[in-house]
């Protein structure tokens, strides 16, 4: 075995052993995890995620109106609502109806 491969293996093993010890230190108690589930920082939600939701709404509406709706209307007209739900309704609900910090 070459010296370079031995050193690389030693470094990799050392890093792996150090990272194994970090996991339990970062873990919270089950009560904290349950309490914080589904909550986002209000500032991050208002300044980053909601504008991204608005962009997702615009992009989804464009994709739906230009590409999806004509094809689905021709092939399966009863499924128009399903494609609209994924591309338009969910981003609109997230952006305008859900309370801040909910996601």
How is the secondary structure organized here?
Layout: H1 3-26, H2 30-36, H3 42-75, H4 80-97
Plain-language structure description:
This protein is an all-alpha fold. Helices cover 81% and strands 0% of the residues. The protein contains four helices and no strands. Helix 3 packs antiparallel against helix 4. The longest helix has 34 residues, at 42-75. It is elongated, with a radius of gyration of 24 Å. It starts with a helix and ends in a 6-residue tail after the last helix. 5% of the residues are buried. The model has no long low-confidence stretch (mean pLDDT 80).
Give the proportion of residues in helices: over 70%
Kindly provide the radius of gyration, computed on alpha-carbon positions and rounded to a whole number of angstroms: 24 Å
Oligomer: single chain
Q: List the helices and strands in order.
A: HHHH
Low-pLDDT stretches:
none
Distance between the termini: 51 Å
Broad shape: elongated
In short:
The protein is mainly alpha-helical and 103 residues long. It is 81% helix and 0% strand.
Task: Kindly list the characteristics that best describe this protein.
elongated, 4 helices, single chain, 81% helix, 103 residues, mainly alpha
């Amino acid at each position: 075995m070459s010296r370079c491969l031995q050193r690389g293996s030693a470094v990799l093993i050392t890093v792996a052993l150090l990272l194994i010890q970090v996991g339990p230190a970062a873990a919270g108690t089950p009560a904290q995890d349950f309490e914080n589930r589904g909550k986002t920082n209000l500032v991050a939600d208002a300044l980053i995620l909601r504008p991204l939701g608005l962009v997702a709404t615009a992009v989804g509406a464009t994709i739906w109106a230009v590409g999806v709706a004509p094809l689905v209307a021709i092939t399966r007209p009863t499924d128009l609502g399903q494609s609209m739900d994924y591309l338009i309704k969910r981003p609109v609900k997230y952006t305008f109806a859900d309370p801040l910090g909910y996601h």
